[in-house]
Amino acid sequence: MRAALLLAAFALLSFTVQAEPDAAARAQELEQLRSQIQTLQQQLANNRKKKSRAEQQLQKVEKQIGRSARELRRIDRELRAQRSQLADLRATEKAQVLKLQRQRENLAREARAAYAMGRQQQVKLLLNQERPSAIGRMLVYFGYFSQARAERISAIHSMMDALHETETAIQQQTARLTELRSSQQLVVQQLEEKQQARKQVLASISRELQSQGGELQQLRSDAQQLQALLASLQELLADIPANSGQQQPFGSLKGKLGWPTRGRLTTRFGSRRGSSGLTWQGVIISAPEGGKVHAVAQGRVAFADWLRGFGLLLIIDHGDGYMSLYGHNQALYKEVGEWVDTDEVVATLGASGGQSRSGLYFELRHKGRPVNPLRWCTGKPAALS
Fold this sequence. Notes:
It is a single chain. By secondary structure, the chain is an alpha+beta fold. The chain has a domain at about 1-50 and about 215-375: Distorted Sandwich (Glucose Permease (Domain IIA)), CATH 2.70.70. Helix content is about 60%, strand content about 15%. It contains 6 helices and 10 strands; from the N terminus they run αααααββββββββββα. The chain has helices spanning about 1-15, 25-50, 55-125, 130-210, 215-235, 375; strands spanning about 265, 285, 290-295, 300-305, 310-320, 320-330, 340, 345-350, 360-365, 370. Strands 1, 2, 3, 4, 5, 6, 7, 8, 9 and 10 form a 10-stranded antiparallel sheet that branches. Helix 1 (about 1-15) packs antiparallel against helix 2 (about 25-50) and helix 3 runs antiparallel to helix 4 (about 130-210). The protein is elongated, with a radius of gyration of 34 Å.
């Protein structure tokens, strides 16, 4: 999380501030912002010290899973690109072979015709011409034929060289694909090992909660921690100008947003969280691990890190006090300070944060207060259960 906050500091401090007549006033504002970020960083550092050893292990292993999932996605993307290039090379090779074959056939026909005519036939043709001008033309024609054969032979040599280069490129591409597949298998194996380690950590946390009777206390603590984080981010982002390229304010999109992922809604906004007495401030969309998570609208990433109770969490600031939250992800694909577009893939579905089932925790907030996603998103990802 320290790395994410440092990225946030650099990203926020690098925003384009609206022109102020007084340069000294701008410098003072930036210094205040820097101080606020340092304070928030210190608060989060203090909170980290209070974590149990099992929670620290959970955070570590889930962030490792996220990195492995990102690497696997990168390898898969590169594999697709390499396969496409290999297909193009093989198509080029096929066209070159056909062209070379036609050139060889043409040259063979010319060679047979030249052999049939022979040198003596050429002499007879010249002697049979009655006019000197006709003899000259015949000599020129013979020269053209010889030059054409020489050029065709040269073209065949060039084609053979090009074909050899293509074959070499295909061999290199095939070797690269083999290497990538090996890397892919290694990352998958590492991912499976980390998933197994995660199960052991979750069992340890479950034993801790049962022995301490602390499940309700942890739920409340998680909710308070998120509320404090959002309040701090809201304060830090208050003076940051909105993206000038944004087409329409987020508030005008009520009832028009798409859902961030496809799946089954398994919690209702405002419903009770078991017997805890707490209520859901967002919704959970249950779906298989590894599915795509999309940004519901354009905005800037304000937070991208692991947070207890929410796992790998992404928060997007949409301006005018609106934020969208995406929790329990397997991997995050955006960094703090990056702009994202509507429907852009920002993460993959997971079960981070100690969840037993994969799914996306999705919240919408306005000025720190949760709002019902069902009133903002059009339709439903699937029927409520």
